Amino acid sequence: MADAVRNLLTTAQVCRILGVTPHEVYRLATEGYLEVKNFIRYKHGDLPLFSGDQVESVRRQMPKILRRWEGEESARKGAQAAWTRLKRWRSCYYTRLRKEKFLQALEEFPEKTSLLLRASYYLYHLNHYAKAGESYLYDLKEKVLAVMAAKFDSEDGLKIFFVPGPPRIRLCSECRRRARREKKSYLEYANLTGGCSHCQKDEDYYSLYEFVVEGGEHRFCFHSPAQVARKWLKGRQVPEKEGYEREGGYPFGRRIYPGEAAAINLAEVVDELEEFLRVAEEL
Ligand SMILES: [Zn+2]
Ligand SMILES: [Zn+2]
Question: For ligand 1, a single-atom ion, which residues have Cβ within 5 Å?
Fold first, then answer.
């Protein structure tokens, strides 16, 4: 049993070893090069594990596989694919330049603010990968936000707000019957009537905490469900706010677009955030 679990690799580790994106790891799996050997169950989803031996043998075949992928793509799209690839390379290149410029600009800030902004930059990218389907990454997002809440405050550039939302209502059998009679879905009926005193109400289900990190012209915004973040925020004064802004990253005041976000490698993102957790614990 121990042998089966040892030498298993996560998607991020496979990305690093093979130099591919998470999407390409799935492609390798669907094309039969890699098998999912096991799962780690997280609250937010399953993290697939791959065999280290298999990854090693795929690593040796990688140049051949990449040539075939490129061949298939250019056969499909001809000259347009070459042009798209060139544009993608250029956009990758400029994204990297902007990243370097941003990380350099952080040297101007006090140490804690600089640390907070750097972690926020990588957290933005983590969030991007999590939304794109790598949902197990939300566990790392929660750890990072919890440490931010514990170790940083508004002087460092972190503001936290409570944004109240409605409870989730599970209709009682009586109300479900009424909904059916009125030809409404349960959700519709619950929203319309708010249920009755027998219905189950999950308070704060749609409430959230908004984390806003600001330093100079840089700005980031993240959300965490109220039921999750409440426990980290005990004893901290959190002002209430009506409505929320979207999650996003604005280094130099300019939004990072989804296409650019993928240019920062997932393995780098995970490494940086784990390093942040280590450094921040010591503060
Ligand atoms: Zn009732
Ligand atoms: Zn009811």
Answer: 174, 196, 198
Residues 67 and 134 in one domain: no
ipTM: 0.76
Residues 56 and 105 grouped into a single domain: no
The parent domain of residue 252 ranges over 98-165+204-283
> Among all ligands shown, which has an atom nearest to the Cα of 170?
2
Distance 186 CA to ligand 1 centre (A): 14
143: its two tokens: 């750890």
Residues 36 and 133 in one domain: no
CA 176 – ligand 1 centroid, Å: 10
Q: What are phi and psi of 253, to 5 degrees?
A: 75, 5
- The alpha carbon of 175 and the centre of ligand 2 are apart by a number of angstroms equal to 4
pLDDT in tens, 209-235: 999 999 999 999 999 999 999 999 988
Please count the other Cβ atoms lying within 10 Å of the Cβ belonging to residue 239.
8
